[in-house]
Amino acid sequence: MASISIEGVKKEFSGNKVLEDLSLHIPDGAFYTLLGPSGCGKTTLLRCIAGFHETDAGRLLFDQDDMTRVPTHRRDIGMVFQDYALFPDKTVFDNVAYGLRARAVAKAEIGQRVGQALASVGLTTLAERYPAQMSGGQRQRVALARALVIRPRVLLMDEPLSNLDAKMRTQMRDVILDLVQEAHITTVFVTHDQEEALAMSDKIAIMDRGRIAQIGTPEELYGAPVNAYVADFIGSANIIPVTIESADPALSGDVRYRLGGRLLKGVRGQARFDENNAILVARPEELALTVADSAAANAVSGSVVRRQYLGFKTTYRVRLQDGPEIRVDLSAGGRSIDFHPGDSVRVLLPEQSRIIGA
Ligand SMILES: Nc1ncnc2c1ncn2[C@@H]1O[C@H](COP(=O)(O)OP(=O)(O)OP(=O)(O)O)[C@@H](O)[C@H]1O
Ligand SMILES: [Mg+2]
Known about the structure:
Layout lengths: L3 E10 L2 E11 L4 E5 L6 H9 L6 E6 L2 E2 L10 E4 L11 H11 L4 H14 L15 H13 L5 E5 L7 H18 L2 E6 L2 H7 L2 E6 L2 E6 L1 H6 L4 H6 L4 E10 L6 E6 L2 E7 L9 E5 L5 E4 L7 E11 L3 E8 L4 E7 L12 E5 L5 E4 L1
Parallel strand pairs: 3-8, 3-9, 6-7, 7-8, 13-20
Antiparallel strand pairs: 1-2, 1-4, 4-5, 9-10, 11-12, 11-14, 12-13, 14-20, 15-19, 16-17, 16-19, 17-18
Helix pairs in contact: 2-3, 2-4, 3-4, 4-5
């Protein structure tokens, strides 16, 4: 195991800049996720770490070791691909044994380590099967065992769960986390599924067109997104343009803003933002609804456009007076009143709502 440092890495393909001066530090033993939409450069960055791509500029370190020009087979990585990339003409045992044979490990030790690896992914009884005789989830476990059996310094996984059905996908999250925690191995995990990223990661780097948009723990990214791109990508967020009345310059200081003809209170979510182009970010579950004639503070008027009952919560679309449509989620546990399309309501905005630059 090792920490991974990426320092000012650039990569372009025939003039198309895919990674632009990208820097990241991945601590030893972390489960670190690269998250972003299709085409933002996640696979390209992972392949640079693996050594399948040469970088055009910058450095890559495992601990203090400069790996920038070290070939893939000497980087000591385990890799799991989206399509598993198993050898179709080898048995499960031989697939998992492959890396150990390539390293000329003694036969008895191979038998013992492959046996252990297969047991850890629950495939002991399938050792003599061929990949074509297995389900997607089983193949994925073989790929995991094959990557981990060599005890690599770092484990790289590119969308390893995206070919599985929804139920298997959530089960395999636990299998993966158990295995990498047991092995205490630094893991770089690529996904475009924000829920998977939140559920699994110690830290997440959100990428936007070859750059890092924000790095943080799942809680930091969900609770304090630095811009609309991150707020929108992680969970669902209401992104509401507001007019700033006054703003305390201190970070997290009070901000007074106008929305729907009212003067409301929020907090500064960013050290600096353009006061002429500010937005309020509020998660649907942070908002509440009350009756139209309520005297509640920090509230705006609106009318219910749609109501969707989902059992554990009810989701409302509400058009704000002189403002956009927003989403409000009321949990079933609360003492909330039920509202219906056409109802006039007041939307309560928390005073901790964050105002950031658009
Ligand atoms: N070998 C290559 N040659 C030319 N262009 C490439 C190559 N590999 C990737 N690209 C381009 O680089 C950009 C980033 O691709 P990449 O595969 O890294 O995206 P990604 O974030 O992994 O997307 P996805 O979620 O769809 O897998 C894309 O515009 C892609 O077309
Ligand atoms: Mg990809």
